[in-house]
Amino acid sequence: MEKVYVSVRRLNELGHETLELTPEEAEKLIVSEQGRYFVVDEETKALLKEVSLKPGQRIALIPIARGG
Amino acid sequence: MSSDYEEVRVLPTGVYRVRYKQLTPGQIKALRTRTKRKLQVLRMTRNRLIAELDEVEAAVERVNGFLEENQNPEVDGYIQRYEEQKAKAGERAEAFLRDFLGEEGYSKFRKAGFLELQDTLGETWRIYADGTAMRWENGNFRRVCVIRQRELPLPDHIVSVVQTIREQPARLRNV
Fold first, then answer.
1. Which of A55, B23, B57, B125 has its CA 20 to 30 A from that of A42?
2. Are A9 and A61 in contact (CB under 8 A)?
3. Is B157 an 8 Å CB contact of chain A?
4. Dihedrals phi, psi of B136, to nearest 5 degrees
5. Max CA pair span of chain A
6. Structural domain of residue B36, as residue ranges?
7. Are B134 and B141 in contact (CB under 8 A)?
8. Are B120 and B164 spatial neighbours (Cβ–Cβ below 8 Å)?
9. How many domains are there within chain B?
10. Position A68 in a domain
């Protein structure tokens, strides 16, 4: 069966909130969280600098650390 | 003329010299006034202490009620669920850290207790197992203050710091 969703794992206090979103929804989420998270492809561990997702892709949103 | 007098009294507890001072009517009046004032002060003190006691008793009731409300099985269950959820979150975060660093990197990190890496500017950093970040500076590793996101599991915090050093070290440097 063809995968239509992108799996988005967001690291937060809830302990890895995982969302199954369409590529468009995932892209909207990433844009809305811009500046707060790094977007990393879970397969390749590469940082995604351009928001262009494909169905079946698994990504992780890693919080950007801040100095105090 | 004063009719003060003194006497010696022998009591079971010892021998005493007792002086009696005769009071004039004026002194009696003054003594009465002083005694009335003293009584007034004592009554006021008693009333204040009674009022304070009432307040303390009410506070005891309030705190006791709060404690009883928080010691019921429903609240205990909530705490237990939260602790279980937190433990699972910790396990997931640890697995993610292992995956993120790779088996070899993870193993080195856990063995040494720290991870050494270079940022995009060529500077060397160390991230310790407790989440502390240090940067090589003037011949020493110096601690860099990094804010840990509230309730973020420690392995996730480490992932976050490592990724930030790799990609945007200025976020931790220019503070």
1. B125
2. yes
3. yes
4. -70, 125
5. 48
6. 20-69
7. yes
8. no
9. 2
10. no
B84 located within any domain = no
- The tokens for A18 are 């995982």
Domain that holds residue A33: 6-63
Q: Is the pTM of this model over 0.80?
A: no
* Tokens describing residue B79: 């705490």
Nearest to B163 among A12, A15, A62 (CB): A62
User: What does the H/E/C string look like for A1-50?
Assistant: CCCCCEEEEECCCCCCEEEEECHHHHHHHHHHCCCCEEEEECCCCCECCC
Q: How far is B41 from chain A (nearest CA, A)?
A: 57
Q: Are strands A6-10 and A58-63 parallel, antiparallel or unpaired?
A: parallel
Q: How many residues does chain A have?
A: 68
Q: Which two tokens stand for residue B111?
A: 């063995």
CB contact under 8 A, B159 and A16: no
In this prediction, does ipTM exceed 0.95? Answer: no
